[in-house]
Amino acid sequence: MTALDVNPLLKGSLDSALISLCDRVEVLAPGSIAGLTICNPPRTRLERAIFPRLPRYAAEIVEIPLSPNNFGSCVRAVACGEIITCPDIANEQRFDPAWQNMNLRHGLRALQSRPVYLRDRKPYGTFVLAYREPRDETDWDAALMTFAADAAG
């Protein structure tokens, strides 16, 4: 059980802090869309997501199991502790077509999912940086993602 399970007020203030983090990352990476996915306490599924600029997209990321780990980038990032980069979602072949369609439907064409680790050093979610055009990850994106994922944890 985590502090978030015990005190609902903490969840609200945590969400505010995470939204603020997303806003700041988007300022530092013009044209980006930042967000997070968050696992349930036993880490068996993605329970919810925070995407301040895409609330409908966030609403679709609910109750997604972490096994099998090929549904999408965030599932793989959490389940395997890997950084997942997708420079062209329309041509991505590693993940479930439902994941690909969900991203394209919301106008996302490239993204990176980076695991967010808590104190126990296990992934508990992901920080996501997405773009509306296909693009390769830059050194700046990688540095910013490292900072954001660490800040979210």
Within the largest sheet, what's the order of strands? 3-2-1-6-5-4
Specify the overall morphology. Answer: globular
Integer average pLDDT: 89
Low-confidence stretches: 1-10
Radius of gyration (CA) equals 14 Å
Report, as a whole number of angstroms, the end-to-end distance: 17 Å
Major sheet: size, sense and barrel closure?
A: 6 strands, antiparallel
Order of helices and strands: HHEEHEHEHEEH
The number of helical segments is: 6
Please report which band the strand proportion falls in: under 5%, 5-15%, 15-25%, 25-35%, 35-45% or over 45%.
Answer: 15-25%
What percentage of residues falls in helices of 4 or more residues? Answer: 40-55%
Structural class given helices, strands, pairing? alpha+beta
The beta-strand count equals 6
Please give the structural blueprint:
Blueprint: H1 3-6, H2 8-28, E1 32-39, E2 45-50, H3 55-60, E3 64-65, H4 73-80, E4 84-86, H5 97-105, E5 110-117, E6 123-131, H6 139-152
Antiparallel strand pairs: 1-2, 1-6, 2-3, 4-5, 5-6
Helix pairs in contact: 2-6
